[in-house]
Amino acid sequence: MIAILTDFGVSGPYLGQMRAVLYGRAPGIDIVDLFPDLPVCNVRAAAYLLPAYTQYLPADTVCLCVVDPGVGTDRRALALRIDGRWFVGPDNGLFSLLVRRGRDVLVNEIHWRPDTLSDSFHGRDLFAPIAAGLAMGKVDGLDAIDPGQLLVSDWPDELAEVIYLDRYGNAITGLTADALPDTAILDIAGHRCHYCRTFAEAGHGTLFWYRNSNGLVEIAMNQADASACAGLRVGEPITFVPG
Amino acid sequence: MIAILTDFGVSGPYLGQMRAVLYGRAPGIDIVDLFPDLPVCNVRAAAYLLPAYTQYLPADTVCLCVVDPGVGTDRRALALRIDGRWFVGPDNGLFSLLVRRGRDVLVNEIHWRPDTLSDSFHGRDLFAPIAAGLAMGKVDGLDAIDPGQLLVSDWPDELAEVIYLDRYGNAITGLTADALPDTAILDIAGHRCHYCRTFAEAGHGTLFWYRNSNGLVEIAMNQADASACAGLRVGEPITFVPG
Amino acid sequence: MIAILTDFGVSGPYLGQMRAVLYGRAPGIDIVDLFPDLPVCNVRAAAYLLPAYTQYLPADTVCLCVVDPGVGTDRRALALRIDGRWFVGPDNGLFSLLVRRGRDVLVNEIHWRPDTLSDSFHGRDLFAPIAAGLAMGKVDGLDAIDPGQLLVSDWPDELAEVIYLDRYGNAITGLTADALPDTAILDIAGHRCHYCRTFAEAGHGTLFWYRNSNGLVEIAMNQADASACAGLRVGEPITFVPG
Fold first, then answer.
1. pTM for the whole thing?
2. Is the CB of residue A30 less than 8 Å away from at least one CB of chain C?
């Protein structure tokens, strides 16, 4: 399976052109738009979403990860093998948290380049062919490099801010849910949020936090749009209220 | 074929994760996002859209239907066999109109639960595995129950209100088109709408109603956004103007 | 491969119903939503996008092209063979630029009609079955007509205006990139745009033009939303600033 995680969005001509390349080079392989609208050009938010949203994929899934504001510059192209799955994309910090949290990590630089390489769409021209090749079992042309050579980031282990707003207005954060006790109280945009297990448990019109189905802390409102009601946006900071 | 009808929307990580489960458990089965952005948490609107938008699907199609604001509570999980197709989803009224209008209806409760069941994403953890199983011909583990045991709703046979706004600004209603004569005049948001057969027949800037390609009454404007022009929203009531 | 180019958008019940028909009639064929949200009812913009965004597709790809504001009228249905690919859709000018620029062009009228043909969704009822047939190698039922019989348009070879705004706020134009020297200066909405090869080359907050990955001139801003910042919309005119 090839899973696509990108900030291209579902509209426009980008996802389709990338898929056309994948179908041509990896016939018969299933392709999933796993997270097609990561926050635009926001490598940091994507870095925290990647581990959470790829953790349940089958072994050997190839994750094609394209958030690439530096496209066309000389930043490296990478193929990483982490805990039994492949990750392909640019060396811009996107894989920082995956590498940091992975148990079994192998980092490779991709030196291969296609005959025709556009300056602005390496997702289609470079990363998709590599991902298709890996899905078909072709792993030659990769040069192992030391993980320490990756673009280093000093991003924290836990990111206390909003990293994605979904269609329901729920705000996904960069906080690992298991690290928080039920008694934790969060403050976001001046609102205090207590823990609820399910949406139905929460009163109408009250912001609450819960452990989402991918192990991240999420801020929500039962049958209402939390982000609109509280004016939340990607990057909104979260603080812990002393108990 | 598995057809997905949900309020998840096309963006975000929900449709993709559900598809990843389907691909893993029902290899080779075609999957269609038939109606991926049903109105958010609006079980009633979805209940009227389901019969109209699944009626042309091939026999034995499995319709995976997830509008589930009560996810994580003890509401039943259902697998219904209606007129030769399967429908899988929560017992919250979503299937009311399908059951009422179906000629050959068999209602089953699903008692199976996965080893790991999140509190907020039964579409991925519970309904998708069931749908995949049905698509592969596995119908064991279902307990037939009386349709009278379903969550009863007193929703009318014909719903005289807007249940979906599409990209063009057309407003789909819960009214069956065949029930209305060409002479019917509708009032919506203070505008009178006469019948036109095609868009091209209607004058510019005039709201009209027509029989849409799925058998529902739809309010539209030729080459203009009816919903924006007339300020329509989901839930907007429609009245019949005496002839 | 079947590539879909349409103004249906990715939401709603249109793309899914069309795909359900394709899966049923062309089992095993790959389907790609190549450009699913062409500007609404804007046949002219689509006419310039089609050649650019289909040029890299494999030989024998069937392009299902539906921007069809005249649906239900007696406009012709077409199947064109252009430079080794098929194009299916309405005769409303949509294929003007493809025909004009094609080296090897064969135009066919489709006389076949399905038993049940809705008045508003020929994408599903007429064009999808034809596209599926062509993908399966069925080319009977087509009548060659003279390209001169097509709905003629006097649209220019180069369209100096915005024809699509993407998710990043980049503005795709109807100008062929190869026709413009690096020294060209464009004026759009009162802003002067110089050429940059990559996004990273451009200063923050400065509009620039570049050759996009499909050979069209595109107006953008590095890590900012050019369209929002400069108030661009589809149809925005572009002028050339004397050097």
1. 0.97
2. no
